[in-house]
Amino acid sequence: MADLSQITSCDLSGLAVAPGDIHAAAKVIHGAVVETPCSYSRTLSSICGCDIWLKFENLQFTSSFKERGALNRLTALTSEERARGVIAMSAGNHAQGVAYHAKRLGIPATIVMPVGTPMVKVENTRHHGAEVVVTGATLEEAAAFARSHGEARGMIFVHPYDDPLVIAGQGTVGLEMLKAVPELDTLVVPIGGGGLISGTAIAAKSIKPSVRILGVEAWLYPSMYNAIHDGNLPARGDTLAEGIAVKSPGKITTEIIRRLVDDIALVNEAELERAVATLISIEKTVVEGAGAAGLAALMSDSSRFAGLKVGLVLSGGNIDTRLIASVLTRELAREGRLTQLSLDIPDRPGQLAAVAALLAEAGANIIEVSHQRTFSDLPAKATLLQLVIETRDAAHLDEVMAKLSASGLSARCT
Fold it and tell me: What is the pTM assigned to this prediction?
């Protein structure tokens, strides 16, 4: 990595958004949007081998940074435009930001959300007073419907990322981070359409040209990575980070990112799940998949950040509680703390008790028990015993498996 201290200037000329636009946005949103904490994490810093500060945008009223850009854009509307109403497409967070602040400002709002948007985001958007239309398999299809629907009714289209006023509003995140922690030398920011990282990069590099900006996308949706690197990686599938599941990045944002962002990392689903679970476990804070993308990048390649002072943007916290439960359970399984075992045992009295006694001796806790006599290829006098057990960690699980084997039981993890 280059010596960042030697960089003394950064060319910000000719971009669609200027540093002054972001400072103006900060004045517009002041008092109506939370200036969220940017706090040092001692434990995560120890785990990753660098100094980590977390920008808690999940603590906004709508649990996302999207309020910033939405409010800056809505405030700029004329009285005539406000009367016509606004329409937006969104996978959830932009929807809530537009709906909430439109209601505050007395502006009618319609939000188009793609099929598959988490129900918590749909319901929260309705709760903020917007009319919600759920249509389109992708964000791009929802956008096409929103544009045609809005044009037919004379509504103002509020783009979630490819709008200078929206980008300027999102850039206030960067202003606040370097105001709170001037010594930051690296900012790690999720990328969907690119509004957040574009605004943050302009703001940060106008204050501290040497700061390094790293974007993070999900492997399943590497659209900006493709645009910057002339790649053709496929964008498809269901990702935990639906908030950054964008197939077509913005034109304005792509140009800014090409100029100012140093690199883009890609993270897989297991890494995103691990990061969500880690933030809940260590920081006691709930983030959605997109909000955990920055930490996922650090944890998957910590040597890249060794010794640096890193700011992570926890961009949002709108995640379904059922999905949180699934993520946490799956992480316990990866850590060897929750395991499903299958054992072939004789079908006679006392066998289950014997297995339970062995597991108790080994210090394992039985969570679930299932006997399968019919749907197996075992002899009629045998049964398939399936257990879900809880152990301290992977090493403890190995001890349990060894004890079962030493007792003559054939156990396998399934």
Answer: 0.89
